[in-house]
Design a protein that fits this description.
Protein name: Periplasmic heavy metal sensor
Structural class: mainly alpha
CATH class of the domain at 35-48 and 57-165: Mainly Alpha
CATH topology of the domain at 35-48 and 57-165: Four Helix Bundle (Hemerythrin (Met), subunit A)
Keywords: Coiled coil, Signal
Number of helices: 7
Largest sheet: none
Organism: Billgrantia desiderata
Strand content: under 5%
CATH architecture of the domain at 35-48 and 57-165: Up-down Bundle
Order of helices and strands: HHHHHHH
Length: about 180
């Protein structure tokens, strides 16, 4: 039950973060969704392997993400080799994330269908919510993994510059709070 609650909170906060009407019993627009628990932008983000804020623990603790490293390539003075390695990492991450994103979409679709067809049982709900939560977890792990990969591509000064350009607070030594090389 705790997993179900955690998952429901994730879905609600994801929708709320995107400006959807949530709370006070208002589900305006939700009934017309193909998959009730996912907005159109959620589906698109999952299909395209976007981060969807799944790697915030890494990002906000000074672990650079490949997409943002590419956006800051000039400011970070990436070498050609670093740029190439970052592009490869980004592409691998995107491919893996979009594959898992499709699996998340299918799990959510199946859960939605279960209720739409009035076939929901406790056993099926537990099976599908466990499957869905596992897939969301795998997707999050992929995004977090590539923040670690970037530490093998960038040097310490580039990481400090990344943190600075991303507007993250740092300590007196220039480290992002909570992260040490």
């Amino acid at each position: 039950m705790a997993r179900l609650l955690a998952f429901v909170l994730l879905v609600i906060t994801t929708g709320a973060a995107q400006g959807e009407a949530v709370g006070h019993g208002s589900y305006a627009g939700f009934h017309s969704r193909e998959i009730k628990a996912l907005s159109a932008s959620d589906v698109e983000g999952l299909q395209q392997g976007r981060g969807m804020e799944l790697a915030l623990p890494a990002e906000l603790n000074g672990y650079p993400g490949p997409m943002h490293v590419l956006e800051l390539a000039d400011e970070l003075n990436l070498t050609e080799e670093q740029r190439e390695r970052t592009e490869q990492a980004f592409e691998r991450m995107r491919e893996r994330a979009s594959d898992l994103g499709e699996q998340v979409i299918e799990s959510e679709r199946e859960l939605d269908r279960l209720f739409a067809e009035r076939r929901a049982t406790l056993e099926e709900i537990e099976r599908l919510t466990d499957q869905t939560a596992r897939r969301w977890g795998q997707l999050r792990a992929v995004h977090l993994e590539y923040h670690l990969v970037m530490l093998t591509v960038l040097d310490d000064e580039q990481v400090r510059q990344y943190v600075h350009h991303r507007g993250q607070p740092s300590d007196a030594h220039g480290h992002s709070q909570g992260h040490r090389h």
